Amino acid sequence: MQSKTISCSSLDELLIHREALSQFHADVIIVYASASFFDDDRLFATLLPFCGNLLGCSTAGEVSGEQVRENSISIILWHFQTDAHAKIYACELAGMQASKEVGITLANQIQSDSLRGVYILAPGVNVNGSALVDGLRQKLPQHVGISGGLAGDGDAFEKTFVMGPNGISNQQVVALALYGDKLDFDYAALGGWRSFGPTRLVTKATENQLYELDYQSALDIYKKYLGEYAEDLPASGLLFPFEVIDSEGRSVGIIRTILGVDERQQSLTLAGEVHEGSYVRLMHASTDDLIDGASHASMQLPVHRSASAAHNKSQDIALITSCVGRKLVMGDRVEEEIEEVAHCLPENVKIAGFYSYGEMSPFNGTLHSQLHNQTLTIMLLRERI
């Protein structure tokens, strides 16, 4: 596999790269850019002639190599050197309640013969990300990993965009299906957040709406623990997510971010589902905690910088999806978590990705995919030549 990354600060700068894009003969192009670029028709019109397998999304920050940028365009493109191939599928999302059905519809469209992995980009608002993943997982083969993320809009949570071969929309879900026996995938996901406070029983919840904890208003309890931070809800919710734990007090590896509050219903809107009868506990983190989490996530991958010379004939790619909440905590040190990932990967790997409103990835060493929040996830794609 041959791969290339491009980073631009404007659409005018992107136009300068047209000749390089034309000569590369890409099989796949993925674009990560701040939301403002998707309001300009030139982004889609400039890139589509160079590859029919074109997809992308708006972000809360763009990753290109070891850099994290804002208000920019990050592009990764590659072409296969074997009979591996890719195909894009898309489906419109009518609203949050349709999330699982859209996942099922997409999965039913995806051809399963020789399918090795699926990469998803979905809206970041008005979506139930965990239901979307459940729908996909219900119909896709169990040996196929699902990765990707929910589009971002800085820290505004107002309007996000997803791009596919048919154009740009704030309601479509796009799936990149990757085929071929020569393709290998590895995944990693880890947070670095720390829990605090008592364990709370979820006593009333519907999908991703949390109403009661220990038979009390979830919003009241949440505000109590946030103290002065409660004045900045829902934005401050990114700094204090929930950890889902089992009845024995052990983490199940799932974090849920607060995306909104409903004062009338005294409820919290989460980025993914929690279920009545489950347990949650508040979390917080320091910059060092999150950077350590990124390092540990990278170490979950079975490859490292001492990879064999034969392996290095292929320019592998690593697609990173990390949460906007992590970026807000780390501030100017946010690039350090990407540097930790890069340090653990072979030097030939091209890195790209984005800061998101939700991360999709297998975890715990299995191909069982989940929606994560406040997590750094890595999809490593390799082609055996």
Description of the structure:
- The chain is built from 9 helices and 26 strands.
- With 385 residues, it is of the alpha+beta class.
- Strands 14, 15, 16, 17, 18, 19, 20 and 21 form an 8-stranded antiparallel β-sheet that branches. Strands 1-6-2-3-10-11 form a 6-stranded mixed β-sheet.
- Strand 24 and strand 25 form a beta hairpin.
- The longest helix is centred in the last third of the chain and has 13 residues, at 287-299.
- It is globular, with a radius of gyration of 20 Å.
- The relative contact order is 0.18.
- Residues 305-310 have low confidence and may be disordered.
What level of helicity do the residues show?
Answer: 10-25%
Q: Over all CA atoms, what is the radius of gyration?
A: 20 Å
Number of strands: 26
**Anisotropy-based shape:** globular
Distance between the termini: 8 Å
Biggest sheet features: 8 strands, antiparallel
Counting H and I runs of at least 4 residues, what is the number of helices?
9
The percent range for strand residues is: 35-45%
**What structural class is derived from the secondary structure elements?**
alpha+beta
- Look at the structure and give the mean pLDDT: 92
Low-pLDDT windows of residues: 305-310
Task: List the topology elements.
Blueprint: E1 2-8, H1 11-15, H2 18-24, E2 28-33, H3 41-47, E3 54-58, E4 62-64, E5 67-69, E6 73-79, E7 85-92, H4 99-109, E8 115-122, H5 129-139, E9 145-150, E10 162-164, E11 167-169, E12 172-179, E13 183-190, E14 194-206, E15 209-213, E16 216-217, H6 218-226, E17 242-245, E18 251-256, E19 258-262, E20 267-270, E21 279-284, H7 287-299, E22 317-323, H8 324-330, H9 335-344, E23 350-356, E24 358-362, E25 369-372, E26 376-383
Helix pairs in contact: 4-5, 7-9
